[in-house]
Amino acid sequence: MVGYLLRRAIGTIPVILLISLLVFLLIHAAPGDPADLLLSDQATPQDVAEARHRWGLDQPLYVQYLRFLVNVLKGDFGTSFRYSDPVITVIGERLPATIELAVVSLLIAVALGLPLGVWAGAKPNSWADNLGSFFGFFGISMPNFWFGIMLILVVAGYLNWLPSSGRSTYGIARGSETGFYITASLLAGNFAAAWDGVRHIILPAIALGTNMMGIIMRVTRSAVLEVMHEDFVRTARAKGVPERAVLWRHVLRNALVPVITVGGLELGTLLSGSIIVETVFAWPGSGSLLISAIESRDYPLITGTVIIYTLAFVAINFMIDILYGFVDPRIRFEK
Amino acid sequence: MRATRWRVIRPLLKPKIVVGAGIVLILIVAGALAPWIAPYDPNAQDLALALKPPQWLFGAHVLGTDAVGRDILSRLFYGARVSLIIAVTVVLISGVVGVGLGAISGYFAGLVDFVIQKFVEVIWAFPPLLLAIAIMAFLGQGLGNLILALVMQRWISYCRVARGQALSMRSREFVEAARALGASDARIVVRHVVPNLFQSAVVIGTFAMASAIISEAALSFLGLGVPPEIPTWGSMLADGRTYISTSWWLALFPGLCIFFTVLGINLLGDGLRDLLDPRLKRSGSGIG
Q1: Bridge partners of B50?
Q2: DSSP H helices in A155-298
Q3: B128 — contact with chain A (CB < 8 Å)?
């Protein structure tokens, strides 16, 4: 197990190197000199020349790349133009909001998608299957940015049930400064603040989670459909295990591997979806930060966010690999 | 004769395929005929008529007008055209690149395979839309960059499937027979391997088309798509968001168009997959 993890961890190193190379090349493929891009519009030619030297832009490309790589590995993405703080600090402040939103979206997606998929897969062509398939297609076809706008229009605007933007109501005390409002408020026993946080997160989390819900439903359905024909299901039924237990204990457990695989891959979609949904709901996370960075041409911040999101995705996939072993003990980590 | 034709058509008459193909057909017709069926020039502004609500069948502007008085319906028709052209181009380029590299990767194996698969792995490591956002952010707006950004993310799904199939074809009789007859590697790949990858490519292509339309709309929505003078559903939606509290029709109609188009393509893809390539079923969704 440890050997496997080590090999997998080493295997991701070339991928991370290539990711950084790709981002580096992208910055250099941008029209204009990086110094022009990386300096503000007010920079004089002297400033540019000085900056070119300071940043090593007068050096050969491979030297520049190695320098970039070393900085990235140190977590040094430079200073944001707009916030005049190190990029890593700016992103770090916004990351908890994104993580909180992503986790709640994922919970919604799994809580709806998994049971729908199991019911649909257990009785193909029944009304449960039709209902499930409807939700499945609805989920994978719904553009999250439009769904978000419609939720704002109807639920926040017309019905006035929930707030339309932001993370908390001004004046309601936040639980703490960790950035995880709901968790922190709950831990601090401040239920008013926690409830306020929940009210704010519901709409963006639904907008973001719908897509994933559809995908999880569809994968669960086809996985369950496949497992239902296995011998051990017949055996379980023959020895008198109640149908409910057959389904939720025997079938689901065995259907989970493909669900986790696809679910893990789709976490990437969730991450990039959060960029858009955060923008729609003015959610102060790292996704909306990226978009405002693009709008203000804050290139160090763009580079930092892109790399951190990608590394997060690589880390998530790594963790999913580990998860397999727990869900399906047949998968031994020898290979 | 009639019986044969029926045998070909009948499997296609699944509800998913019929509904999906119907929606796609409407889209194609709307896009192709946009200059003739659109009641107005999509970019004609008339500030006196700004933000008129939908007049349905009782007025000049059936679905209303936007903030500068442009006719929503006309812009939707032209938007269909833009979405369609971009999506088809992206899917074709991705398909050719992905299937080509996949066939080469699987057929030659060894070092070529290693290099191509490393590249696939790197692209795969990016969250789907993020790479496109990064490309647009650094390279700037424009049709060419948009297509590049969308292709970058899409060819890998063709490549992965094509590689797996090509790998299994290496030792199959028909490939060995061709080799025994003296066919060159290039000829075997082009004439014998690639045609066998076609069916899966069609299925992947359908889903890729749906995802390309959503991604294009998302990028346009973020202001990272084609230049603003070209009407697209995504940019219409972005405009509509500004007026959401007063003028609901601005955001409703383009979004409905995106949703139903993507739904139609997904239904079609699902139907085609059941028909052509049930092995792909596990993948659960399209891509990205």
Answers
A1: none
A2: 181-187, 191-227, 231-238, 243-245, 252-280, 286-295
A3: yes
